[in-house]
Amino acid sequence: MNTYIRFCGYSYHTKGYHSQDTEQLTGYLFRLQTEGTGVITLNNEKIAIKKGDLLLAKPGDLYELNIEENEKSGDYHLSVSGAWVDEWWNRSEKPAISTIDLDERLLALWRHLTIEKRRPLSEENQELSSYLMQALCLTLERAVNETKQSKNRPYAVTRMLRYIEEHATVGLKVEDVAQHAGLSVSRAVHLFKQIVGKTMIEYAQEIRLSAAIDQMKYTTMTLENIAENCGFTSYTYFHRVFKKKYGMSPGEYRSK
Length: 256
What we know:
Blueprint: E1 3-13, E2 17-18, E3 28-36, E4 38-42, E5 45-49, E6 53-57, E7 63-67, E8 73-82, H1 83-90, E9 97-99, H2 104-118, H3 126-147, H4 155-167, H5 174-181, H6 185-196, H7 200-218, H8 223-229, H9 235-246, H10 250-255
Antiparallel strand pairs: 1-8, 2-7, 3-6, 3-8, 4-5, 4-7, 6-9
Helix pairs in contact: 2-3, 4-5, 4-7, 5-6
């Protein structure tokens, strides 16, 4: 895969820390602050960092980290080089510092890669490590892009969309969606409809129907079980919603 992972792990400092690096970086460095604060010096510019701040640095950059004696700091970090990461880095602009959500799936991916790299070299699956690294890069890129404020879609709406996509088939309350976005229910409902063009429930319904179609195509589950598995309260309700959307019953759709 032509990828070299120099190091990957998690650090927690309780008694201060000061890196002594004076040479330019020879690989790409990713660092995600998960707890506490610190100061990064990147190319002679001092940057205060806090929980949720992601550093993306490239080969040739000058990097230094300082954690004060009375501060605590936790971070995930990765240094990598190779043709794939070169191509990934160069295809779009990468901001040096971004603030992203500490999504558990992203952190789990970072932990998975860390554990794989801890294995003895004879036992490490380097192909798996390479794919995990690629998945991490792409996930970080998405997190950075989704965090950016946009005239077309505020970040709060993106948070609501992602929450609905994750919970649509396992039970969903508008109140929970609003809380996840840090908004009142009335503000969340209005903003979502204004930006997305449909209500939260309508958006969730589309996801449930899409999941149901996949299960009708690729599983032998009964239609009653599919309805329940995709978040519909009953088969009768599923039947009504499906027919309204596609002009035929679930049974007719499956038979075709």
